[in-house]
Amino acid sequence: MHIIIEGWRFLPHSYAIVNQFQLLEMLKRPQLKIYHQDMPYISKSWQPVTGLFPQNSETALRNIPNRSPQQAADATLRMYAPFNLNSSTSNRTAIFGCTEWGIVTKSIIKGMGVNSFAEAHAQSDTIIITPSHWSKEGFIRSGAEESRVAVVPLGVNPNIYHPLPIDERNTLRQKLGIDNCFVFLNVGVMCNSSQGVGRLLKAFATIVEHYPDTKLILKGRDAIFPSKDSIAKAGKVALTDAEMERIQPKIIYVGKTLSFLELAQLYQVADAYVSPYLAEGFNLPVLEAAGCGLPVICTRGGPTDDFTNPNFALAIDSQLQTSHTKDGEILRFVLPEQDHLVELMQTIIENTLFREQARKAGPLWIVQNFTWKQVVDRLLDLLIPSLKLSRPTFDPIIL
Question: Per the confidence metrics, is the pTM higher than 0.90?
């Protein structure tokens, strides 16, 4: 069986991250022959990054052969943006995509070079694979044919994202100088409009007033987005001067690109993960945090409803809202309730039993439902159904 992947690699962008973890999982299937075609990054400022994976995994990714022109295969999967709905030379064609704002935006449609997303999908036989029902509804709202929009969630590698033994965790926290603090964590590009950074800073300012021994680690992605500037702008809008002065010594910002093992350490040393997002296609850091045993606070009503569990996650009350852009688009988002966010952050600090429960429940939930093996099994069932008959019965460990 042959599959062609057209996509991004060696980049800390969510599409590239998903692509690479899926590729590593596909490589475990000896009956599957994989070809890869690297697609241009959408920004000239983006540069390939090495060291995201251990050397053996990075070598395995680099050794995937390129596709030859006009090569046929059982399936072609496109893991990049803007979306390309054109049919391929393969028996089945699929794209991976997300609709964070509840629609395929006009900027994406323009990048696709089409007049209408609905028309482009109707004129092709391409399947849309998206990681959440929130995102699926956005594609359908934009005119995609529902029968060709499938939800396949994202996953976690438990060999990377798992709780540390208590003694190792304590040693690492001491090394980082956070051993006597309660540490909240948020990971992402730090886009305020979609990820709610300003709302998080505002809530943290209240928390620090009552719990002075708290810290907030913000992990941005400066390689692909001005994360640090975005945080500063959000703070100026959301905070008073007094609040800004109060939280500045309590914030640890990490903007550089980390390997996935280094990123996992941030989850492993934190006490809770908090994500008061407004618009996400999936929100993979929430899943990674759960895999590392962190209790999670995230917005109710969005894509995280698909994969969070009350045994480890607390949902922020929210309201479904819309906004109109200058060119007439209607964007949909979930607006988290600020007072409830603060209340849940206080609850996480005070409720030791819930944190201990989450440390066990989150990783178990991931292993049972959201490993990359399980994700790729579902993905291949869609792309090459006949492969289901010859799956490996074991899951060799490859980071």
Answer: yes
